TrEMBL record:
The keyword NAD applies. Its EC number is 1.8.1.8. Belongs to the nucleoredoxin family. It catalyses: [protein]-dithiol + NAD(+) = [protein]-disulfide + NADH + H(+); [protein]-dithiol + NADP(+) = [protein]-disulfide + NADPH + H(+). InterPro entries: C1-like_sf (IPR046349), Nucleoredoxin-like (IPR052259), Thioredoxin-like_fold (IPR012336), Thioredoxin-like_sf (IPR036249), Thioredoxin_domain (IPR013766), TryX_NRX_thioredoxin_dom (IPR045870). Keywords: NAD, Oxidoreductase, Repeat. It comes from the Eukaryota. This is protein-disulfide reductase. One of its GO terms (molecular function) is thioredoxin-disulfide reductase (NADPH) activity. Residues 36-168, 186-361 form the Thioredoxin domain.
Length: 429
């Protein structure tokens, strides 16, 4: 899954950032300017992974991806593997796509090691001026970053969010024009409007899900008319392993609540969509869960990740009884409202938010919490708060929170353990 990027300061330091350039921006690039971008007064070539020199002018008339990356940052390695696959697919089909690596490596040894894993060209590590100029020109604030340029006879501007596009659409995005991306967005919109449980969870080889005890098979058709949670998770992911027991508890409570209240015959079910790395890990993790699962390695898994644009796990996507998406914020709603979040609709969330606002009127405006040394102040999204990760339970939160104005520490109101100021003197958080 995609991770947070690193902000580039064009010096020796790096700071964590969630952002990156997006959309069409910057100047339109003609092939007559390819040399001015990628060459210097002392150099008219690029380096192949084996160290051979390739003349910059050979890239005229090509679609060029300028790839800002670094050996030392794991998310760059993650994206690099994806980009290599896309690049090789496009080259094997005879496309006019080329990639040029712009290094943020710490030394030439790291550069050579990383570039050897790439099938494309690179600006020489020693050409610091060209690398800095490209970072400035395309306003690169984070890595990995992929800026895509069209040939000179194409007047489209540079596409700055190539990483996002590659993750989302893969080879289908080629030739990376505005028109092609608009077509893909229209297709994506149509798929969401026409989605059903059948086209999401089945394929021509399988019309069932795994149940317990495995290898029990449960027909996807039997889930029609139910509210479904698609749980994107994996055993190797620590936040997933921490969240799963909480979700199991809430799942059991919702099932009991539905049984008691009947809810006009509706029911609730969860389907595990695994990102585990091997069958053994999948089996071990799934055996801790009381719900259903797609088989390990099933082709629908990649399609679901792409369809719901899942960049990180755990993620809980909620589908309504009609098979349409209700919300992609199921995890957050579970953390905030527990079993009361069911059936996760906008109307239900609105009622819960109003109730939370009413309850907040009775909360103290400030508290001392046993897990923190400073005074915490009650905030909401409207007065200095916003989405946060609770420093006590490590889960998401939004709406009301207790926040430290000195250091930014935030906790859910339900996680506060009230204490007196003197009792916090030995707490270092």
């Amino acid at each position: 899954m995609k991770e947070m990027n690193v902000k580039i300061s064009h010096g020796s330091e790096a700071a964590v950032s969630n952002g990156g350039g997006g959309g069409y921006g910057g100047a339109a690039v003609s092939s007559s300017r390819v040399s001015s971008l990628l060459a210097s007064k002392d150099r008219d070539y690029l380096l192949s992974p084996t160290g051979n020199q390739v003349t910059v002018s050979d890239l005229n008339e090509k679609i060029i991806g300028i790839y800002f990356s670094a050996n030392w940052y794991p998310p760059c390695w993650n994206f690099n593997q994806v980009l290599v696959g896309i690049y090789e697919q496009l080259k094997s089909s005879g496309s006019n796509f080329e990639v040029v690596y712009v290094s943020s490596d710490e030394d030439s040894e790291a550069f050579n090691k990383y570039h050897a894993c790439m099938p494309w060209l690179a600006i020489p590590f020693s050409d610091l001026d060209t690398k800095k100029a490209l970072n400035r020109k395309f306003d690169v604030e984070s890595i990995p970053s992929l800026v895509i340029l069209q040939p000179n006879d194409n007047k489209e501007e540079a596409l700055n969010d190539g990483v996002e596009i590659i993750y989302r659409y893969g080879v289908d995005a080629f030739p990376f024009t505005k028109q092609r991306l608009e077509e893909l967005q229209d297709e994506e919109k149509a798929r969401h409007e026409n989605q059903t449980l059948t086209n999401l969870l089945t394929n021509h080889d399988r019309d069932y899900l795994l149940g317990h005890p495995t290898p029990k098979q449960v027909s996807v058709a039997s889930l029609r008319g139910k509210t479904i949670g698609l749980y994107f998770s994996a055993q190797w992911c620590r936040p997933c392993v921490n969240f799963t027991p909480r979700l199991i508890s809430i799942y059991d409570m919702i099932k009991e609540k539905v049984l008691v209240d009947d809810h006009d015959g509706e029911d609730f079910e969860i389907v595990f969509v695994s990102s585990d790395r091997d069958q053994t890990s999948f089996d071990s993790y799934f055996n801790t869960m009381p719900w259903l699962a797609l088989p390990f390695g099933d082709p629908n898994i990649k399609e679901l990740v792409k369809h719901f644009d899942v960049k990180g796990i755990p993620r809980l996507v909620i589908l309504g009884p009609d098979g349409k998406t209700v919300t992609q914020q199921g995890r957050n709603l579970i953390n905030l409202y527990k079993e009361n979040a069911y059936p996760f609709t906008d109307a239900k969330v609105e009622l819960l938010e109003k109730k939370m606002d009413e309850e907040a009127k009775n909360l103290p405006r400030s508290v001392y919490h046993g897990g923190h040394r400073h005074e915490l102040n009650l905030v909401s999204e409207g007065n200095g708060g916003g989405p946060f990760i609770c420093c006590d339970c490590d889960e998401q939160g939004c709406g009301w929170a207790y926040q430290c104005l000195e250091c930014g520490y935030e906790v859910h109101p339900k996680c506060v353990t009230a204490t007196t100021p003197n009792s916090n003197t030995n707490t270092n958080r």
